[in-house]
Amino acid sequence: MRSLTVDVIKQAFLQTPAEKLHKKLYAAICNCILEGSLRPAARMPPTRDLANELSLSRNTVLRVYEQLQAEGYISTRTSSGTFVTESVLDNLNTQAARTVPATVPEDRASLSLRCLELLENASASPAQWGDFIPGVPDVESFPHRTFKKIYDRVARRPNPEYLTYDAASGLEELKSALSDYLRTARGVKCTTDQILITEGIHQALDLVTRTLCDPGDNAWIEEPGYWGIKNILRMNAVNISALDVDDQGLMPQANADEKPKLIFVTPSHQYPLGSVMSLPRRQLLLSQAREFQSWIVEDDYDSEFRFSGQPIPSLQGLEENSPVIYIGTFSKTLYPALRLGYVVLPNVLAAPLKKVHNELYRSGHQVIQAALAEFIREGYYAAHIRKMRQLYSKRRNQLVELIKRHLGEEYLGYYNSNAGLHLIIQLPAAADDIHIAKLANVEGILVRPLSRYYFNAQKSKGLLVGFASVQDDNMLPSFLRLVKTIKYKAY
Ligand SMILES: Cc1ncc(COP(=O)(O)O)c(C=O)c1O
User: Fold this and answer.
1) Which atom of ligand 1 is nearest to the CA of 203?
2) For the segment 396-441, what is each residue's pLDDT rounded down to a tens digit?
3) C-beta 231 within 6 A of ligand 1
4) Residue burial 294-319, b: 16+ Cβ < 10 Å; e: rest
5) Which terminus of the chain is more exposed, N or C, with fewer CB under 10 A?
6) Which residue segments constitute the domains of the chain, with CATH numbers given?
7) Which letter does DSSP use for residue 463 in this model?
8) What is the whole-number distance in angstroms between the Cα of residue 164 and the centre of ligand 1?
C-alpha cells in the first residue's frame, strides 16, 4: 500500500530548489520534519518505494537516510522500519540552544570584571607603523633576501616534525644557537635545556604570571613601566605594587607589607625612562628576591642596542643560580611580526613551565625557527645587529641634536641613556602629553605619551619618540611638525 508519507515527501521534494538530488531530498525531508508534516514517531517510507516514486537511485535515498539518522532526525528500529525520532524537536531545540546566536545583545556580553578593567586600560596602539613610533626597529633594513634564501632551503623539504605541533618548547637547533648567543653576547648563564621559545616577551610574561602567581598574590613592577605587564597582571588577578625608578633603576622596598611573588624589571635599559640599573642596585634586588623568595623577571627587550661604553651584561648572569627568569625577543633585533622570543628558565622551573606552555599555547612555526637558527649560526644575526646599531646610533644623535636646537636641552629626559630604540622628550609638568600625542598621531607622527606608562598618578610628562624606524628623509620634516604640535599646545 502506498504510504501517505511518500506523497508528503514528494511534494516537498518537488518544491525544494537544489542542484544535487541528494541535497534536495535531504532538505525536503528536514523541512517536513521541522514544520510538522512528518510528525514525531511517523514511519518513514521504505527507501526502495521512495526511490521509485521520486525516480532516484536507491543509493541516493539510502545516503540521505543515513545522514538524517546520524543527525538524529530519524531512527531505525530493527525489523520494524525507520521512524521520525520521537524526541526530534526536543533534540533540535537543545541543539539550537547550544549554538547560541552570534547576536548576543551588548548589555548581556557578561564580560568578567578583570576583562572590563583591562578594556578600560587598553594601551596597545591601533597604529603600528609611522614616523617616530617607539619600540619598532627599522623593519625595512631587515636582510629579507638572505633570510628568504635560508627559509626556502628549509621549507623545500621540511622535516615532518616541523609541520606538526611543537611539543619540545621550541626547535632544538634554535635553542642551541640562542644559548651560545646569550652566553657570549649577554652574559647569561644557561644551557639549551633551560631555554623555552615563546611568541615574544608578551606571551612569556603571561606564562610566568599564570604559572607562578595565584589570584591575590602581589607583584612589583616599575613605575613608569611597560603597559603590557599591567594588563597581564590584571587579567590574572594579581595585585600590583608599582615602585618608583630613579637613575639606578627600580627602587626596591626593604619593608614590603606584602612580599612580591614576582618582580618585573628592565635592568639593561629601564622602560620607558632609559636608566641602567647600577651594580649595587642589582645586588640589592637579588638579595631581596632571595629573602622574599620571589622570582625576578628580567625583561631584556632591547639591550643589543647600546651605542657607547661597554655592553651591560644581564642581571641573570651576575650570580650562579640567581633567582632570575630571563626574557628576550627578536621583535627589536629583527621585526615584531616574527612573534618569536625566548625565556631562560631557572633549572627548577624549566620542566613545569615548558609543560604549561605546551598545554596553554600549542606552539608551532618550526620552519621559521629552523631558518632563524641557521641565520644565527651563519653569523647573519650578529652582522645585522652590528649594522642596525650603527644606523640607530646615527639616528639617535640626529634626534638629540634636533631636540636641543628646536626645543632646548631641558626637553631631553633626565634618564635617557645612549641606548635603545626611543628616547623621552621631557615636557613641563603642566603639559597634557596625552592630548599632544593625539594631535601628533593625527599627523601620522606616532609618539606616545609618557603618562600612559604610569600605574599610579603620573609624576612626569613627556613623549616617547622612536628614532629607529624613521627614514632619513623624514627625520627633519616630521620632527618639525612634532615641534609645532608641542609648541602649539599651550600649557
Ligand atoms: C619593555 C618591553 N617589554 C616587552 C615588549 C614586548 O615584546 P614582544 O614583541 O617580544 O612581545 C616590549 C615591546 O615594545 C617592550 O617595550
Assistant:
1) 11
2) 999 999 999 999 999 998 888 899 999 999 999 999 999 999 999 9
3) no
4) bbbbbbbbbbbbbeeeeebbbbbbbe
5) N
6) 4-98 (1.10.10.10), 142-382 (3.40.640.10), 388-488 (3.90.1150.10)
7) E
8) 28
